[in-house]
Design brief:
Helix 6 (162-171) crosses helix 7, helix 7 (176-186) packs antiparallel against helix 8 and helix 8 runs antiparallel to helix 9. The strands form three sheets. The chain has an eight-stranded mixed sheet with strand order 1-5-6-11-10-9-7-8. The chain has a five-stranded mixed sheet with strand order 13-12-14-15-16, with helices on both faces. It is built from 17 helices and 16 strands. The chain is elongated. It has two domains: 14-330, 2-Layer Sandwich (BirA Bifunctional Protein, domain 2), CATH 3.30.930.10; 342-429, Anticodon-binding domain (Rossmann fold, 3-Layer(aba) Sandwich), CATH 3.40.50.800. The chain is of the alpha+beta class. The chain has helices at residues 14-33, 47-50, 58-61, 82-91, 134-151, 162-171, 176-186, 189-203, 208-218, 224-234, 239-250, 297-301, 317-330, 351-363, 377-386, 397-401, 420-429; strands at residues 37-38, 44-46, 66-68, 74-77, 99-108, 120-129, 155-161, 257-259, 273-279, 289-293, 310-316, 342-346, 368-370, 391-395, 405-409, 415-418.
Length: 432
Amino acid sequence: MELQLPRGMSDTPPEEKILRDELIGLIRKTFEAYGFNPLETPIVERWEILAAKYAGGSELLKETFKLTDQGQRDLGLRYDLTVPLARYIGMNPTIKRPFKRYQIGTVYRDGPVKLGRTREFYQCDADTVGVRSMLADAECLNIAADVFSKLGFDYELQVNNRKILNDLLAKVGLTGDAAFEALISLDKLDKLGQDGVRKELMEKKIASEAIDQALELIQVGGNSEERMKAIAMRIPESEGLRELRELYAYVDAPERVIFTPRMVRGQAYYTGTIFESYVRDSKINSAFGSGGRWDNMIGTFLGSKEQYPAVGFSFGLEPILQELKMRRAESAEGLPKCVTQVYVIPFKAIVKEGRQIAQQLRRAGINTDMDLAGKGISDNLKYANAYSIPYVLIVGPDELVQSKVKLRDMRSGQEEMLSVEDVIVRLRTLPS
């Protein structure tokens, strides 16, 4: 038997898992700072939920992993965290709104594999259900700005509005299903180029003149303000443009918010604001986060024409982690190899006392490991060094006579004789 992983899947070794957990912790704290509460939903959903009209859309459905249980029921692995949230609200329609939830978990897509994009990946979502105001949309962008700023990224937040796109397509005679089919193809502009998109649109029986006009309209040049003015010349009464200007009034870093008329976001459920985030100096071309407004999906699940306004943002953990790993590889910092702060090395004759000291440190909130194999001092120091454990505590008979232990800083090599109480104070105040 050959031991290998399925394509697009990967193990997460300890040093990467530690970094992932640090990143998730930062994102979780940011979500909670904005008043979002946690929610968990199953990885497996009923196929009809994932395939609903206002769920991911036909293109995303092609990448969905399909399953059948022993009762021959059609199921699928979730491809995002938005559809499960809509299903949850649909099953709990009396929930008090606004309902602000965040969810951090794995999603699955059987799509192309490249740097920063795998088939099992984490999403970190924050969504607000029950608010129409652009304040909720701006809050999504402000959360993204906060996280990327804390990570030290030179980022930009690209924004558009599906209403603007629909109005532009209506100008060239494309409405309803024809407009959505056009959007699916226009979303591939970066991947296929103009000629590839034009060919695909012609295969969908869209007139050549309409194609040329649509491509021209969504690729208007200039900065964000110039683009908005140019678009306003064509669709002056657009509700999407009004919403976009309102959005700009509420964001914390408007200079980093770039109006991008060519940005589509392929999911069928988007109804208004859409956004994607990128790191400007990164080798990774994938979006580091994305989201938008999805006002129709919950009503669809309930079989109701009533709108349940909703908007959210999702961080893509994989591209962010890849970026952090590349940056640390280029610096002297490197990846953390373990979470241990101190390694206790007791002499063989006083293992019992060494264990008691280790427990004392743990109860004081210090991550503590201990030699369990009875190795010598030299081998234990090599072990601690291999895992980059910052401190070692040597517990020997001479030290115990003085009611002290020897604390060794593995980075500097300096040693001090301290009481266990002083060790606790020192490790709480020094960087780990």
